[in-house]
Design brief:
The chain is of the alpha/beta class. It is 28% helix and 25% strand.
Length: 497
């Protein structure tokens, strides 16, 4: 059998001022043809798909098209989306007869002019391959599931955990796809949108209401005839016309069962809606004091308002400013995206003392520059690494600035490595010796797990802040909880045929 394989993924923060261009995709590896297979072994949903193919004894011919994955950021530039969309479709048209398409998408991408990037791409792909060719789609579970998506895909399978395990989602999707191709199952899909939006504070699936909701999904999958139950708590900074939470359920040829399961799990989310709004965020000054006073071991300060993995620019200086003002006595690590400051550090060289205005340039609404005088102690350029499960990451140019006990790592662009220990280790810092590390994410702390003793979720402002009422919503469908009065709501799942 012949299966086309592709990925086109980005998570959009509608409130980020930094548009996503072609360079954002190239940073993480924009691959074509056979390079997709060679470079994605063990990484992302495609890596999981390849694991399943390797287990099979029959003849599976892969037709790799392209892999374009960008970090979360502002809306995709129209020119970039048009180019990547066109290249994907051109390669698909040239692929010849296919038995299936494995198309990895994020689910929460929009461009400057297109709300629903995934829906548009799936509609195009369906038009090319026809109605008889299955299209299997692994998604991030923070997707905004739209009508065009459910109408043009045979499988929409979301992540089961946060932090995510993209290869596992790829394996799950692939196994269902191969069962479908073998005639062992006939997937039927039910879809329910939920008029709900919540901040990121309860997004981890290891505890709290999100664990309860996702545990229910796994329980429901044990019912005879249920193939997949995918909850989609949409990431909360996507201002689109079909925004909000959703559920997708796949059953084996049983539309009524699909509808029943979708209604049950949707109702549970609605019942838990108040719980999803509970927060353990700590004010900035208090968070820094608590971290300094903590017992030995690494304390993670989660910069929730400047979550690069959620699309924020990465140059918010709120926590850096507080660390300097409190003159923290312990080794503290802070990343900041600032290409101009990196250039100054490179011009000065090692060792030198420089005065820099750091950050607050990309996000000038929620942040402002901080003047810092410190020593340039290390520089690096174009360090590239494979981050397990994520693929290639190019750090570009980085500079390490020493300012008292604070070590500031400047990056010239947003990179997945901004929240990875490699960022510090490759500049000569022993992470085990640090007391504090600012991590610009609200949930992906796993890379520091071997040192982590405590995590403090800091209530910082920014384009990924949890105070959603601060944003100027323009397109989000209304009414929606909690912005509007919704005293009652009952699910009415739609079966997709």
């Amino acid at each position: 059998m012949r299966i086309a394989v592709a990925e086109l993924a980005q998570e959009t923060d509608s409130f980020s001022p930094v548009l996503a261009g072609l360079a954002d995709f190239e940073t993480y590896g924009l691959f074509y043809g056979e390079d997709v297979i060679q470079r994605m072994q063990g990484a992302g949903p495609i890596g999981g798909f390849l694991d399943v193919v390797a287990e099979r004894t029959d003849n599976v011919e892969l037709v790799p098209l392209l892999r374009g994955w960008a970090s979360a950021g502002g809306p995709i530039c129209d020119e970039t989306f048009s180019q990547l969309r066109g290249e994907l479709l051109d390669r698909l048209r040239a692929a010849g007869k296919l038995d299936a398409v494995f198309l990895s998408l994020h689910g929460a991408a929009s461009s400057v002019s297109e709300d629903d990037v995934e829906g548009a791409v799936l509609e195009d792909v369906r038009r090319v391959v026809g109605n008889s060719v299955p299209i299997a789609v692994p998604l991030d579970h923070h997707a905004s599931v739209t009508r065009r998506m459910v109408q043009n895909a045979d499988l929409l399978v979301g992540h089961e955990t946060q932090p995510h395990d993209p290869p596992a989602t790829g394996r799950k999707t692939a196994r269902l796809m191969f069962q479908m191709l073998a005639g062992e199952i006939s997937p039927v899909m039910a879809w329910q949108r939920i008029p709900l939006i919540t901040p990121q504070d309860q997004f981890l699936t290891s505890g709290g209401p999100m664990k309860e909701w996702f545990d229910l999904a796994r329980e429901l999958e044990n019912r005879p005839g249920v193939l997949d139950v995918s909850p989609y708590p949409m990431q909360p900074w996507l201002d689109v016309a079909e925004g909000g939470w959703a559920v997708v359920v796949h059953t084996d040829g049983d539309p009524e069962l699909a509808r029943e399961v979708a209604a049950e799990i949707s109702a549970r989310a609605w019942d838990l809606r108040e719980e999803f709004w509970k927060s353990g965020r700590v004010p900035v000054a208090e968070a820094v004091r608590s971290a300094v006073a903590a017992d030995d071991g690494l304390v993670i300060l989660s910069d929730t308002g400047d979550s690069v993995y959620g699309g924020a620019p990465g140059d918010n200086t709120t926590l850096l400013r507080e660390l300097l003002e409190q003159q923290v006595p312990c080794l503290s690590l802070v990343p900041v995206v600032d290409a101009a400051a990196v250039a100054v550090a490179f011009d000065a060289g090692v060792p030198s003392t420089v005065t820099l205005n750091i950050g607050g340039q990309l996000d000038s609404i929620f942040s402002s520059p901080v003047e810092v005088t410190g020593r340039v102690v290390s520089l690096s350029e174009n360090v590239t690494t494979d981050i397990p499960g994520r693929g290639v990451c190019n750090l570009g140019r980085t500079a390490l600035i020493e300012c008292g006990a604070v070590r500031i790592v400047l990056l010239d662009h947003r990179s997945f490595g901004v929240n990875h220990p490699l960022l510090y280790a490759h500049l000569g810092i022993d992470v085990a010796a640090a007391k504090l590390v600012v991590v610009k994410t609200a949930s992906n702390f796993q890379f520091f797990s071997q040192w982590r003793k405590q995590m403090i979720r800091v209530d910082t402002p920014g384009t990924t802040q949890s105070n959603l009422s601060e944003f100027n919503w323009q397109r989000l469908p209304r009414p929606i909880f909690p912005f509007d009065e919704l005293p009652s709501w009952s699910p009415e799942p739609e079966v997709v045929v």
